[in-house]
Amino acid sequence: MSYNKVVPALVKSSSDNIKRICLSHGRFRSTVASTQRDEVEGGKEKQVDECTVVKAVQADLIIQSKNTTDAQTQKIEIDFGNTHEAYKSKDNIELLRSLLVFKLCTFDFLVDKNKELMDLSKKVFGQRLFERLMKMTFYGQFVAGEDHNSIKPLIHKNQAFGVGSVLDYSVEEDLTQEEAEKKEMDACVSEAEKESQVPAPEFFVTQEHDHSVDHREKKYKAHRQFGDRRGGVVSARTYFYADEAKCDNQMETFLNCIKASGGASVDGFSAIKMTALGRPQFLLQFSEVLVKWRRFFNLLAAQQGKSGMDALEQKLELEQLKESLTQLGVGNKDDIENWFTGEKLGPSGTIDLLDWNSLINDRTSISNLLVIPNVETGQLEPLLRKFTVEEEKQMKRMLQRVDVLAKHAVENGVRLMVDAEQTYFQPAISRLTLEMQRIFNREKPIIFNTYQCYLKEAYDNVSVDMELSRREGWYFGAKLVRGAYMYQERSRAEEIGYEDPINPDYEATNRMYHKCLEFVLEEINHNRKANVMVASHNEDTVKFTLEKMNQMGLSPTENKVYFGQLLGMCDQISFPLGQAGFPVYKYVPYGPVNEVIPYLSRRALENRGFMKGSQRERSLLWKELKRRLLNGQILYKPVY
């Protein structure tokens, strides 16, 4: 694909009226499978975020039949308490290391001061001894090695036991909070905003028809107190914009990961993060425009008595909609009539959200996409009063980088997952991902979007995108996570003053995750044109998925449902799944010891909550260690 395929989908030339737009080896057999149904055992979940995935070689089913149909309908039950199967890839030293690290993660003082303690250890022991100490503990537990060559033994071992590897070069900038805040404000505030001293008005309201006013909402503007986007975040890596050259370097890192994935396996995965590929100002602004157009649709739906319904249940009567738009002065009667004469627009006499999304005005310049409807004047008005030439180029360069990565993924036979980020960036990220799906997912799922199920709108997002894939005939690809930004999102919403986008509690998030997952599984069952990555450490969620797959007759050999967990965590889930033939992946970070300290610091913070919430993994580790000692396996070594 060339850049010319992506950008025109966003920026076809047109008049000033609203028109349609198409934004637009060997492997072990396992005895872990059981015909007995397990008791449900819970555990706190953690998200698998940004990562590049190397797909494991497909395993045979544990229970097989000479008849293909029987093989596909054969139920598989996995015993996640079978420690022999779960830890057969680990020697005793690795088990002891896991027990030590997980125990240390339960001490608040050690976790809260982990960065300071690591810095002190480096000064006391010296660099060489410090690195050896780290490799014996936290680094050895959560990081695979320092470079592509040093991580190969771990990747090959995991593959032999049925588990693929998620590669991520986990080097991060070690910025102070002040440095991070300055970078974020410089990257997210436009020249127009820097010059303007006029406060942003409320949604769709202005004092008068004045194009000098910047129509911005607080949620979609940068705020210095939340400029350090690392705060309150675990699992997710954070990128801060410096300049275009740095974005090019980060694109090269993603390209190298795609090459590694393609060279290591067939149909591998790779993941990217949009904020690494350009100035986040565009993501903020485009997100605000998309949200305001959707609100406008909701306003029109309310006028027809259709508020409070699921997104795709809201179907506006076409004639009544035309009348409302005319009364609002959005356009004259003839113009409005012409907007709804598209080939796929309104054939049933109604307009739903997908039809409405196709009406967003397309213009020759990307910045001209950033217009919003003003209900009072009936005019389309610019979100900002001006864009500099350089800002326009920065927007286009972000799209060019996404285009290069997508093209490279196709050439290397790798599927590309786009990671989710904060809610004030996410609408734009999802829309850009959707456009890639419409281009590349025609014959098979290449592009995967990530859905954060701690969001109140998660099901609407999944169902709307799924419906679009049905209508247009392309393959739907999704990674489901619970989310990595909850504390930050809630704090920001409360302090700045907008509705909390997060579900009220953990149980509500679990229900949302299972609702979205079941919806995608049903789509897979009906037409096999959808794929899903179940990225969760929650054992109940994994069992829920297996139960639904059994009920629907979905075979793991179809490679439609994938599982993902972090390296060094929840091996009792990952390895039994892999040895039973399910596509499962470990997120495998790598990088020099000194340069992955920020990542290790987050792992310590994350494991505190995880290990305090559940004793299951430590008890299983102790159980396996005792079993080996009682059986005389003091020098146990994995065989593969």
TrEMBL record:
Domain of life of the organism encoding this protein: Eukaryota
Catalytic activity: L-proline + a quinone = (S)-1-pyrroline-5-carboxylate + a quinol + H(+)
Keywords associated with the record: Acetylation, FAD, Flavoprotein, Mitochondrion, Oxidoreductase, Proline metabolism, Transit peptide
The protein's enzyme class: oxidoreductase
Record EC number: 1.5.5.2
One GO CC term, this protein: mitochondrial matrix
GO molecular function term, any single one: FAD binding
Cofactor(s) essential for the protein: FAD
Pathway stated in the Swiss-Prot or TrEMBL entry: Amino-acid degradation; L-proline degradation into L-glutamate; L-glutamate from L-proline: step 1/2
Domain Proline dehydrogenase: 155-609
Keyword Acetylation set for record: yes
Major localisation: mitochondrion
Gene Ontology BP term (one): L-proline catabolic process to L-glutamate
Subcellular location: Mitochondrion matrix
Record family assignment: Belongs to the proline oxidase family.
PANTHER family linked to this entry: PROLINE DEHYDROGENASE 1, MITOCHONDRIAL, PROLINE OXIDASE
Function: Converts proline to delta-1-pyrroline-5-carboxylate.
Name of the protein in its database record: Proline dehydrogenase
Organism annotation: Oncorhynchus tshawytscha
